[in-house]
Amino acid sequence: MATIGKKLWQKLAAACEDSREDKAAGQKLFKEFTRHGYIHLSPAEKVTLSSGAVFDFYRRLSLVRTASSPVVRRRDDRWLRDGDFQFINLQDYGSFFKVLMDIPRLRNDCLIFYPVTDCNPARPLHPRSHSQLDRHLSDPVLDSLGLTLEQQFRLLVAAAHLCGKKAGYYLSPLIDPVSAVIYRKPEFFSWNTLSGRSVDKATLLAEVHALVQNEHGRSGVYDYSRLKELAGSADLAVSDTDAEDGAVCFDFEEAGALAYFSRIFGGLQMQFALDFVYLALPHDFSDGQIQKVYSAIKEAEGCKRYTGYVLELSEKQNYPEEPTEPVVLTNREKDRFPLDEESIHTWFHQLGNLFEKNKGRRIPVTQGILLAKGESSNNSDLLRSLFLSRFSGVTLFRRPLVLQRDLTEMQNRMEDIYQRYKIVLEKGELLRVVADETFAWWIINEKGRLLIPVMSLNNAENKKPVKVKIDYSSITGRNGILSVVDYDFSSSQGSLFLSADNTLTISDLKPGSVRLFSLQ
């Protein structure tokens, strides 16, 4: 079952002995997806779907679409320039199969799978292996149908491709301290002594090699938890470089470590038809280290010509010199914005910096910030963060969405409206930005067609937005009657009215709310 095509989906649907109800449900999902490009399915509705309905949906989809990558025929990876990203943490789902019905619900076109190899569930970003899939992700339904663990992940990637998604993979040089490569290739890491005694690197490595060989000779197996304990008893420890969660980082001063790491994605892509790599480098990496690792990944043999590269850096780090493919910078240090006057000024200042960075570049750099529903965030914060990400970026200032959690319930209406005005944002010009203590607005002009996003802001005294008056006469340059569509995002439809005085007056902007006005 190496090939994931329509015959396999047919076999899976037949093997489930799907009932008439399952077929009816699958047909309904298929019709909705082919009509809208996504399925509006609440979390409660999703859990009621049977495996037969899920397989019937994909069986129908496989009859009209190919499971090959949507970008397989591309000669380069410029497609990534327009991508919006959604992280998928398999540990949250528990198995490959449980993700299948989420994929057609998601609006972002690029999925980033967190590591699916063996890991400690408490450290999903820091795997213990880069080749052995996590057996806990195997699903009883797919097991019973005869699919191996590898085939189950291939099925998931094929499902993403059927839905028009590009499949990416999260890759970081940070790994779990109980990892095979640490003890099988100790020279790839920095070692020290727990007591602080001064020992040269060669002696430390010799002690580690001897410890591993002695334990393997005694037990006949490689028990890496046991080896970590023995190393500690022998006054030996691999450096964690002060990484979060005690994760260990490769020592890229060692050529073998760099060569090993740079080949990881190519090997995974060959097995699972992945489309791009999301490279998350530690925030204490120097510019030289970033350039070295990034270049090694790009130049590694075995990657497809259309392979995309997404680079995660902090705001303090610099992106590599002129790349030959798009680079998307993201920042994992924040999952929300203060959404106050200062943060708005900072946000648009960063957009200006992007413009300067992209001058003269054949392929521009874009920048996004991870959005997630954390403990300190609420729905109004998320709504405004999504709004700001979606409607503030134009042309070379583009802000891709980078979602760390499933926010489709909140995102759907906004995405429907965004698609309606996407051409204005892609070709428009940012003309004016105003941020006050309680509100912010800006104007985007595309050949006389105006978009005016408006949002309320947080402030220390919890003041409510005052009356907002926006004069756009200097832009339109005429005294004519304009059609105005007002969106408050309570639905995907707006309210139409006429304006004859070249101004907008908003007296009902509520705290935590957003509005969008389209004028032409």
Protein architecture, described:
With 520 residues, this protein is of the alpha/beta class. It has four domains: 1-65, no CATH class; 68-174 and 254-421, Glycosidases (TIM Barrel, Alpha-Beta Barrel); 180-249; 425-519, Golgi alpha-mannosidase II (Immunoglobulin-like), CATH 2.60.40. 36% of the residues lie in helices and 18% in strands. It contains 18 helices and 20 strands. The strands form five sheets. An eight-stranded parallel barrel has the order 1-2-3-8-9-10-11-12, surrounded by four helices. Strand 17 and strand 18 (495-499) form a beta hairpin. The termini are far apart.
DSSP strand (E) fraction? 15-25%
CATH architecture of the largest domain: Alpha-Beta Barrel
Strand order of the largest sheet: 1-2-3-8-9-10-11-12
| Overall pLDDT score | 87
CA(first)-CA(last) distance: 55 Å
Count of alpha/pi helices: 18
What keywords describe this structure?
alpha/beta, TIM Barrel, 8-stranded parallel barrel, 6-stranded antiparallel sheet, 18 helices, 20 strands
